[in-house]
Every structure is written in structure tokens, then in C-alpha cells.
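User: My collaborator sent over this chain with a note saying "see what the structure looks like." That's all I know about it. Can you take a look?
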Amino acid sequence: MRAGKWYFVTLLMAAAFWLAGSNCTAQEMTAEGTSVLELPDYLELSDLEEKLRGMTDFSDLSFSDLVLELLQGKLPSGISGLWGEVWRLLFSYLGGQKQLAVQILLIALFSAVCTNFIRVFENSQIADISFYMMYLLIGTLLIGAFAEMQALTVNTLKSLFQFVTLLLPAYVVTIVFSAGSVSALGFYELTLLSVHILQLLFIKMVLPLIQIYVVFLFFNQLTQEDLFSQASEFLKTLLEWILKTTTAILVGLQTIQCLVAPAVDTLKNSTAHRIVKALPGVGGLMDSAAETIAGSALVIKNAVGVAGMIVVLLICLLPFLKLGLSVLLFRLLCALLQPISEKRMVDCIRSFSDGVMLLMKTMLAGLAVFLVSLAMITASVRGG
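Assistant: Without extra context I'll predict from the sequence alone. Here is the result:
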């Protein structure tokens, strides 16, 4: 009944515009700028625009500009200009990571030289003390770097959740007018549920468990006995299961919703459409005007959905590249140190990169849930 109600409201609006002499199509409206220029106010994007600047490292990013360019059939011009800023920020970040890697490399080399020199005189106790001092020094540097990586992941996930929450009201309005209330309500409820579940699992549970996993690996290499390898392996398996299962369930629920809800809206709207079209005299006029407005609403919905997908990608792009760059850099450091340094020292550095890999998987899981959800609702809802 709600879908039929919205359809009749749309038809009445269409009749009013038609009787007033407004015969412009969606392309004419875009060319004249009568509706496109008022789009940000109509969709209430001011709050989203204001908070978006603090969610990414791109200060010039504008959601309204993305929507306007997509409505005009253009590729977003500002996206190509962002790549230069991405590389600049990435190389700036690489400079700080190179300094940390050089410090660890020098400490590991000094530790290898001192340990081998002391063992020449068969004084293993002093050699062990020397190793422990250097190991703890490297571990302190790595734990501090990992804490920064974890904070980067937390901030990125929070920005992602905040953006999706702010996008929902405007996007749901476009779904209502282009398809119906069933699709809009289903997408709204499932997306809010996804945000709540991901906040609870990823930030409150997964990220602290990753930190515990790295600490287990760190202490496991501190002694020559293998004490915590099984515990760390159990935590890694548990974390990967949580990430994969959560992503599969949330994406699966959104897939089911996108298969069922649009079909229900289409059935309700087609019934109301045939009734109105059968009205004598004004039925044909109202039908033509309603199709024009419904087509315009569908174009706006798709533009907002694609713009949302672009922003979701940009929120996670630079943090994900930073984490990946750290993993590559410290894996390279392990390869350089393996022939000359003690195995436990190399394993300590590798455990840091393994922890960062789990942070990347967590960020990628959160990105996949909302990116796939926006893509499915944009593609599946085609109007009634």
C-alpha cells in the first residue's frame, strides 16, 4: 500500500507539472540547470558535504560535484586530479617508514655482529643478554608502528561507517521515488544493521584480537622454545573466519533484499499504473508525465549511488595503500636480514607484517560490504 501511495503522489505531482506547461525531459532539465543546480538542497547533502572533508585526505573532494557531473553524463573530472595527491601523500608516508626500516636494519646488524663476536669467546650468557636487549628495542619500535597502523585502520572504518550513515537519508529518498518504499525500507534497514554489526565486530572485537595476535607472536620469538605458536595460529584462524563469515552474511542478506524488494515494488506500481492509465481524459497525460518524472528520479538515484561508491573507495584507498606499502617494506627487510641475522629477529619483523596484513583484510571486508551493497541496489532498482 505504501508503494501505491507514493505512486499516486508522484502522479499528482506529474499532473501539476504537466498542466503548468512543464514538458521538459530529464536531459532538458540537466541542460537548463533548473533541477540539477538545486539537487544538493533537495537531497539535503549539506551535512554530508561538511563532514566529508574530514573523512578523507582529499580536501577538494565534493560529493555534490560528483553527483552533478554524473547526472550530466561526464566522468568525474576531479578524480583524475586526485592521483597526484595520492602519490604525494604515499611517498611522504614512505619516507617515515623508510626511516623506521633503516633503524631496525641497523639494530639487527649490530645485534648480529655483537652476538657472533661474543660467542667466539664461548660466553653464551652475555650473548643472550645482548640479543634480548636488541630484540626488545626492535620490538618496541615495531609495536609503536603497529599501534599507528591500528589507529589508521580504526579511523578509516569509523569514517566509512559515518559516511554511509550520512548518505542513507538522501539515497533512500531517491529509491522511494524511483522504485518504491519496499526497496527503500529494505535497503535502509539492512545498511543500518550492517553498520551496527561491523562497528561491534570489527572495532570492538577484531582489531583488539589482532593486537593480541601480534603480541603472542612477539613473545613467541623472545624465547627459543615454541610457547605461543598454537595460540597465535588459533587467533589468526578465528579472525579470518570472522571476517569472511561476516562479509558473506551481510552481502548475502543484501543480495536477497535486492532480488525480492524491487519485484514487489514493480508489481504494486504496475497495478497502480494500469489503474491511472485507464482514467478517461487525463489518464494518458498523467501516464506520460509520471514516466518522465520516474525516469528523472531513476537517473538521480543512479548518480547518487555511483557517487557514493566512488567516495567509499576514496575513503579506504590511501589508508589501504599505506598498509600495503608497510607490508612490502618490512617483508623486504626480512629478506635482507635473513642471511645475516638470527631467525628469531627475522620472525619478529615478519610477525609485524602479518599483523598489518590482518588489518588490511579487516579494512577490505568493511569496504566490500558497503561497496557491493551500493552496487547491487543501484543496479537492481530500475524503477517501476
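A starting point for your reply to your collaborator: Residues 187 and 238 are 29 Å apart (CA to CA).
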